[in-house]
Amino acid sequence: HVQLVESGGGSVQEGQSLRLSCAISGYATSHYCIAWFRLSPGKEREEVAHIYARNGRSDVSGPVKGRFTASRDNAQNTVYLQMNSLKPDDTAVYSCARVRGVVAVGFVDYWGQGTQVTVS
């Protein structure tokens, strides 16, 4: 069955870096768009990055542009989120998700359980 499992979260100081991983089973990373979302207390869930299935191109949202990058390793069937120059506002639970069509919560069919990132 399809499963996405995040790892790599933790507590870091402002300005430091962190790399999140999303191990995928049940399907190939090259067959579906995969997105990273984050959820902070009192805020709406927001997308931070996504990777297109066909060509592997990645995009990141405005608030993290220049600091975060998303990538994938098809051989390992894993996607990554490299997070540099972390800020306290980046504190959130980060989840990877499989997306069918438009990158939005409404088009997610499988979610990972999430991993906590805390920046202070």
Radius of gyration: 13 Å
Estimated structural class: mainly beta
Q: Give the total of beta strands.
A: 11
Total of DSSP H or I helical runs spanning 4+ residues: 0
Poorly predicted parts: none
Portion in strands: over 45%
Query: In angstroms, what separates the terminal alpha carbons?
Result: 37 Å
Shape: globular
Sheet with the most strands, sense and barrel status: 7 strands, mixed
Task: Write up this protein.
This protein is mostly beta strands. The chain is 0% helix and 51% strand. The chain contains no helices and 11 strands. The strands form 2 sheets. Strands 2, 4, 5, 6, 9, 10 and 11 form a 7-stranded mixed beta sheet that branches. Strand 9 and strand 10 form a beta hairpin. The chain is globular and about 35 Å long. The termini are far apart. The model has no long low-confidence stretch (mean pLDDT 95).
Summarize the structure.
It is globular, with a radius of gyration of 13 Å.
Task: Give the topology.
Layout: E1 3-7, E2 10-12, E3 18-25, E4 33-39, E5 46-51, E6 58-60, E7 68-73, E8 78-83, E9 92-99, E10 108-111, E11 115-119
